[in-house]
């Protein structure tokens, strides 16, 4: 897995590359991971906001 962060106007861009799948042997894992990452990435803004909020309380 490779995570790349790049500065962009108004924030940060995240590029996530999850490689190493051998298709068709790992087709099921590839499909499941692809869907799973979509869910994780959609939640990142919520997780970051929660972390920032908890940091201001200390």
Largest sheet: 2 strands, antiparallel
**What is the mean pLDDT?**
88
Rg (CA only): 15 Å
Strand percentage, roughly? 15-25%
Taking strands numbered 1, 2, ... along the chain, how are they ordered across the largest sheet? 1-2
> Separation of termini?
33 Å
Category by helix and strand content: alpha+beta
Q: Given the structure, what is the number of helices?
A: 1
Number of strands: 2
Using the alpha-carbon principal axes, give the shape.
elongated
Percent range of helical residues: 40-55%
The succession of helices and strands, N to C, reads EEH
Verbal overview:
There is one protein chain. A two-stranded antiparallel sheet has the order 1-2. β1 and β2 (11-17) form a beta hairpin. It starts with a strand and ends with a helix. It has a domain at 19-58. The radius of gyration is 15 Å and the shape is elongated. It is of the alpha+beta class and 58 residues long. The chain is built from one helix and two strands, in the order ββα. 53% of the residues lie in helices and 24% in strands.
Strand-helix topology:
Elements (H helix, E strand, L loop, with lengths): L1 E7 L2 E7 L9 H31 L1
Antiparallel strand pairs: 1-2
Describe what is shown at a glance:
Helix content is 53%, strand content 24%. With 58 residues, it is an alpha+beta fold.
